[in-house]
Amino acid sequence: MTSPLRVAVTRAAGRGDTLATRLVAANVVVHEVPLTAIVRRDPALLHAALRALGDVRWILLTSVNAVDVLADAVQATGTADAVQDCWFAVVGETTARAAEAHGWRADVIPSQFKAEGLLDALAARSDVRGSRVLYPCAAGARDVLPDGLRVLGATVDVIHAYESVPDAEGQALLGRLIAAGDLDLVTVAAPSAVDALADVVAPERTAEIPLASIGPVTSKAAKQAGFRVAVEADPYTVEGLARAIIAWRDRPR
Fold it and tell me: Both ends of the chain: CA-CA distance in Å?
């Protein structure tokens, strides 16, 4: 009898539940080992931006974390009505659902769930040039969106509202699981997770550990760090990642 696939789900605490549940239902042995934690930054800048929304037309949301941070800031500043007047552009269906839970309808969702896809979708519109855009995002987020929108003639207010930091306890646990040979696959859902994984894996061993990546941006970071990407989600969602992992397990040998 073939042994069950053993997978480490490394998303930040509270973010890996859906993937873990989907994999367990498919008889995968799952180790939930957060490699990163989400830390919010001082909300003063975001609060100030919300109180001065004025001519802001668009709000960009590229993760569920951004939705959560924005929702708390809106509640703290009492700006729910002003925010409702804005249009929302989001990356991915999961982020769209999170936004809709707060009453924010996603006006733009790209067919490709990454920053480049959202930029292309906005570039195809006639109402971006001359508009003001609020972009609450993670510290260290790529500049693809703000730079591209500025080229299109928009004014973009970037607020670094949170950051992803290594989870030392999770890193230590994952290191032990890898050393004991208890894993067949490690998931990574962001470049920050790749960085945290690289901190606990000796450079000469990175190629030995197959990774399952949420999408091409994370895959690129993994390959640059010397890891082998065995699985890449398509579409670039948690559900897409789960399906890709199951297909990889069930592939002909």
Answer: 15
Task: Residue 148: count other Cβ atoms within 10 Å of its Cβ.
Answer: 18
CA distances from 153 to 143, 147, 222 (A): 15, 10, 34
CA-to-CA distance for 186 and 6, rounded, in angstroms?
9
Residues 193-232 have pLDDT tens digits of 999 999 999 888 898 889 999 999 999 999 999 999 999 9
* Domains recognised in the chain with CATH numbers: 6-35+167-250 (3.40.50.10090), 40-163 (3.40.50.10090)
Mean pLDDT check: name the lowest of 136-140, 167-171, 234-238.
234-238
> Regarding beta strands 155-166 and 36-40, do their DSSP bridges make them parallel or antiparallel, or are they unpaired?
antiparallel
Nearest to 12 by CA among 165, 209, 234, 231: 165
Q: Is the separation of the CB atoms in 7 and 184 below 8 Å?
A: yes
